[in-house]
Amino acid sequence: FRSYFILDARKKNKQSVVMKAYLHIVALALIVVACKPTHSPTQTTTLQADSVFTEAEIRAYGEYYQSGHQVYAIDLLSDGLDYDSTFIVGSGYNLYLSDIFVPKDSTERLPAGVYTMDSLVKENTFLRGMDFEGNITGTYLLYIKNNQIEGITLFTSGNMSIDYIDGDTLLDFNLYTADSTHYHAMFHGYTNQ
Q: What is the reported pTM?
């Protein structure tokens, strides 16, 4: 009779250990899921074949990285998007190119010419799209719907041409994703330069 209670106690103790291990695994899984960001835009490759942007802003940052180059950025919006005081609002596409490098002695606006995407800081280049420590930078396309980022496309190669004709800025982009999907975009109109 006594051995029955000892065996039964061991059986209950073993069940208790198994139950504790199970609860620890469930708790760990919940912690991992809870640490995941709640809204993270996904990388998407569903691109329109061509985009014509209706608004463009060119920003000059000067010799921002002490790299021996002047640094610019271009921010383009499609019809349906606009700027409010701090954010882009509406629905549409936002093409952004950061870190466009031109010669240090360049004193005019972003010089006309052809620029090539590169991962190195060189004259007449701009940086490829990348996720740098959780921040999207370089050359990328945002799909914005009702003021929320719904998709991000990073571009890893390509080129752009810039020209100025009769007070208008002409921008032409031929960009490619990592899987070689081609994206063509244009802008023809007034910019802040």
A: 0.74
